[in-house]
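Follow-up to my post from last week.
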Amino acid sequence: MTDGTSSRQVTRGREHAPLLEHCPLFEGVDPSDLEILVQSALHRVVKRGGFFFLEGDSPAEIYVLVTGKVRLVRSGPLGREVIVGFVEPGEPFGYVAAWAGTSHPVSAQAAQESRALVWGVLTIARFMAQHPRMAIRGLRLMAERVEGSWDRLQELATGRIEWRIARALLRLAHLTGRATEPGSAVALEVREQDLAELVGSTAYTVSRILAAWKRAGLVDARREHILIREPLKLRGIAQVAPR
Amino acid sequence: MTDGTSSRQVTRGREHAPLLEHCPLFEGVDPSDLEILVQSALHRVVKRGGFFFLEGDSPAEIYVLVTGKVRLVRSGPLGREVIVGFVEPGEPFGYVAAWAGTSHPVSAQAAQESRALVWGVLTIARFMAQHPRMAIRGLRLMAERVEGSWDRLQELATGRIEWRIARALLRLAHLTGRATEPGSAVALEVREQDLAELVGSTAYTVSRILAAWKRAGLVDARREHILIREPLKLRGIAQVAPR
DNA sequence: CGAACACTTGAACCTAATCAATGAGTGTGG
DNA sequence: CCACACTCATTGATTAGGTTCAAGTGTTCG
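User reply:
Got it. Predicted complex:
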């Protein structure tokens, strides 16, 4: 845990309407309305390791990541942490506490220097009341999140770390979304530690498994970089996995 | 897996407005409007073991459980299943596929004979467009679901089956919501198998652990019934759990 | 009454966590 | 620019916690 608030900067958000137009939450909203929304946003920058908000922080703003990458971390007893997910540019975060009206169930930590737009819940809620389209999009997004969580629940519950790591890698690959022609290599930037916290395991185990995959030519890895050489074979491991 | 559709009955829904008024999704909606909504609902009954819908079923209706209890099950490779959650009367289900516009990510199986109201997505969507309040409530509900899933993710990822079972029991106790004066005994109706699928374990292990707790006087159990004698001690196990 | 279902318990096995120690890559400040 | 501190990654040895297999008891229901 690095320092939380010290690395924050706050400014007015401008000139981000173009970006927002293509992000799932705002798709279909009239550009001029969007402009208004953007004008009312704050603009926050957090350095690598810093936090947008901490688990337990009280109510609640909604963020949309502009650049960088954010880790949503939940810490358990004994300091074991679980990464609930990563946020990529264009995606919203902080919405769970915002809508549920509770304190944040996770911390949002910058995995790289990151900038985000911020609104108070009320602003968004009012905007949604006037733009039902957006409310529906919001519902849709949340539904997708629920679905994603259920996927992962399933995974965690049913075993074999090897699959889980394989899946996590594939998910990340898909998320980061470099032109993934089926079968072509994909490069990722993750710490093995993160991978471990993503699949509910330890860095040790991840290291071992990656080592094995490297030997087999499936992947290649150096500090914070993983190159998936054979996505198809990885997919094979992820799917039914022979015992 | 029992037969899916054979045990279904369909009728028009009537006289359920009173119930709906007190369920989270419709809270705050004008009673007369609610009446209209109820009129447009179908009414479906499913016997124990039957399904409202199956994982993979294509689009999508939204259900609200009236009586009974529903298991949301997700099946994994090798037939291992995970219970994603239980639905109690008054709660909606089926909404994830409905909003995400995908096929159902889980099966909805009646744990007891159950009746539910059903609407097509379009009906609900139109209704929401006219009642933004309800859209917001929907968001809130989903947010709570996400939060719940994250809780469980955390749990599954970090450890100790003993805790997980303890927590599952406490969660169920809270969900079922008999007047839980802190410390008083609570009765549950669950199969140990269900408990296992809830915490990502096996019926064997659950049996063993319950046996131990019985010996210690913490709980009491007979076929499909678990009585929590000492909620506080159970809470102790659930929390930090000495290694 | 018989069949299906829920639960129990012992014994063997095995995956992945833990402990311990070390190496390699990055960045910072004197 | 080099040394030191840090973070990230690696690998072997050990072991605990939980799954699996197998066999069996007790209940409920048609």
